[in-house]
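We examine the record.
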Amino acid sequence: MDRRRADFRAHVEDAWPEIAATPAAEVTPDQVLDMLRRLVEDGKGRTANKLRAYLRAAYQCAIDVRSTMSIPVTFKAFAVIFNPAAQTKRDPKFDRPDKHPLSADELRAYWQAIKTLGGIKGASLRLHLLTGGQRIEQLVRLRLEHIQGRTITIFDGKGRPGQGGPRPHTLPLLKTAATDLAALESHGEFALSTTRGVKPISVTTLSNWAHDAVGESIPGFQLKRVRSGVETLLAANGVSREIRGQLQSHGLTGVQARHYDGHDYMPEKLQALERLFAVINKPKADAAHSRKSALADRDLQRATSATA
């Protein structure tokens, strides 16, 4: 189950069964606000903003189905002419991401904790780290049919309601990650599974495996900190913002990226992953020296470009 569906089930269907049973066209702004306000009162303001965004986008699809041919005709059945979520306001103070990235030393400690971890636990956690800290909810739904030799394809639906479905995001595999995937005993639909591919592992399961592996060695550890930690480490080691965005599938929504840039960036993604692998495998002193060298190389390239 993806994150949006899980959030909707937890915070609408389970928390507000009467509203969930109400026809979509009859839900009022006050009812939407009641759902959001409870989350805020429970200290889940960021979740409230996310739920509001999900509801607003879903209602808008149901309205736009009468004017936009790419929206599935099934939305017409909801007979929606009014968007109750659009009558509410998000609270911007809850939109500040609490990323708290893992430091380079913490990433190295995390790698040592999972480097030799056996079975699907180790394979899944290494795949997550060695593909650049992909969004967990997307990675766990990796299908066997989307593993092609030394590449995998996951699907990024972030920010794309009504835009033709999730965008494929293809990634190269380092040798270690490819070996781990090949060793998994999954014969059904999903690659990362404890049910032989019938169902994918959940985000919570993967997070718990990471917590168990780390123990008390990294204070305040959360698996989501790996993603921002990887980007921070790559930035510190000379990988450009553009390539980091291509690797982690963010910042790709501009007109140029959508319509004119047909390059798949696979060589650059692989180079970034190789740099990540090299840094997390180095002792602290060697890593610090490599970072200084990378920054010096980047400064030299900028100076050369400026005088060319």
About this structure: The chain is about 50% helix and 5% strand. The CA atoms of residues 36 and 48 lie 5 Å apart. Strands lie at 147-148, 151-156, 167-172.
